[in-house]
Amino acid sequence: MVTLAPVRALFGAALALSACSDPAPVPTPDAGIDAPAVDVPATPAVTDGGDRAVTIRFAARVGARPFRCGERYPLGTPAVEAEVVDLRFYVHDVRLVRADGTEAHVALTASPWQHQNVALLDFEDHTGACDQGDAETNADLVGTVAPGDYRGLRFRVGVPFAMNHTDLAAQPSPLNRSTLFWSWNSGHIFFAATTRAAATRPVTFDGGLADAAAPGDLGAQVVMNDHFTHVGSTGCMGNPSAGTAVTACAKPNRPELSFDAFDAATQRVVIDLAAVKEGSNLTANDGCHSFTPTCTPAFSHLGLDWSTGAPAATQTAFRVE
């Protein structure tokens, strides 16, 4: 529980941000459509006696161990020794929950990590095998919220529809990461978790490598296999690069996380890479790019129904500590 009682504070007008969330009702499994939604009303400017500062902390683990670039962990099913390569994700629609179940939106403070209530959490530091991002990291959401007695936390993983299908070059930080973007049509990669492990590949008669053994193979070769968990919207209709706006995506693929017991003053949200990769063979294929059934285990752990793109009732990848 965290109680944010009034204190005398005056913040700059830069904190007068719109609560740019995805306020549409959570899609039901038979809906499975991602379309423009009505904006949440703007958060009032912070004034004396108004909203209070709050920091929501995150951490990355691999099972019980801290996530660290340059280390190897037993991961996947069957378990293999794998290096971590990437762990980043966007969040939005951050809310603290009162004891009576009502919500208060957190207005995220503008920074290189936060823009219009969308934030990037980045745990890779570009050392060791981590070669997808850069050296900077971020594990905190920083913002303001109305005073209150808060007992829980809710947020969505991903970028809201209205901000997801625009020219990457025109977007500010943190929405300008080219390694977290597919195309104007599909938009941003909401969640990226990549590992690298040794895999054996058959050598074909012409000297190439195959995914599966076949008659005439010349032996086998050990290669390093990158296994991706890339979550983003799919089935998007429209082509902004040709002047046609994206009107909807058949599978939104934005999980919503909810924790009934969360104290921002003493606890943090943990993302567990081991849970994300459980049930996935890290050496058999290149993993999940949201389009194929190989995504089913990871989506389930993240709280998504892969067949519909709608939030699922349960998840195992996030916890509170």
**Could you spell the SSE succession in H and E letters?**
EEEEEEEEEEEHEEEEEEEEHEHE
> What percent strand?
35-45%
Helix content: under 10%
Number of strands: 21
Mean pLDDT: 85
Number of domains: 1
General form: globular
Could you give a short account of the major beta sheet?
11 strands, mixed
Structural class: mainly beta
Whole-angstrom Rg:
21 Å
Distance between the termini: 13 Å
Q: Please tally the helical runs, counting DSSP H or I stretches of 4 or more residues.
A: 3
Low-confidence parts: 6-32, 37-48
Task: Characterise the protein shown here.
The protein starts with a strand and ends with a strand. It has one domain. With 321 residues, it is mainly beta. Strands 1, 4, 5, 6, 8, 9, 11, 14, 15, 18 and 20 form an 11-stranded mixed sheet that branches. Strands 2, 3, 7, 10, 19 and 21 form a 6-stranded mixed sheet that branches. A two-stranded antiparallel sheet has the order 12-13. The model is unreliable at 6-32 and 37-48 (pLDDT under 50). A hairpin with a 2-residue loop joins strand 8 (114-115) and strand 9. The chain has helices at 161-164, 273-277, 296-302, and strands at 2-4, 52-62, 65-66, 72-75, 80-98, 103-105, 107-108, 114-115, 118-122, 140-145, 148-157, 181-183, 187-188, 191-202, 220-231, 234-239, 244-251, 256-259, 268-272, 287-288, 318-320. It has 3 helices and 21 strands. The radius of gyration is 21 Å and the shape is globular.
Name a few traits of the molecule:
single chain; 321 residues; mainly beta; 11-stranded mixed beta sheet; 6-stranded mixed beta sheet; 3 helices; globular
